[in-house]
């Protein structure tokens, strides 16, 4: 189980940490320093590099989470409430990411390619809101993971 736990934690840190950096740091700096064409282009290319890491994190989180769920707890019946909550919040985060990937991110890419900055701004705003929700869910999940079994 040490391997599963380590991989699980690393995947969560990569995903949640990346969202924290994007939301709390890059968003503000890009908004202050860059005009819309440069800002939207920056975000699109940053997402192009970050989202493959999110995909890898999703795969690792699902695989290691199920490995631990069935290998340690013997299934959902043997898992505590904190494990159930982590599964629910994790699946919600994954669903939100899938929506981002297949909808506003694709539209942002088209808008940047077409230099349609108003549409790109709308898509980036939608992505920003969804990442904000995912960041909150991710931080809650980390808190549940680290303290949940002691409640």
UniProtKB/TrEMBL annotation:
Residues 45-146 form the Copper resistance protein D domain. It comes from Halomonas urmiana. Pfam families: CopD. The keyword Nucleotide-binding does not apply. InterPro entries: Cu-R_CopD_dom. The chain crosses the membrane at residues 7-30, 50-73, 85-106, 126-147. Keywords: Membrane, Transmembrane, Transmembrane helix. This is Copper resistance protein D domain-containing protein. GO terms for cellular component: membrane.
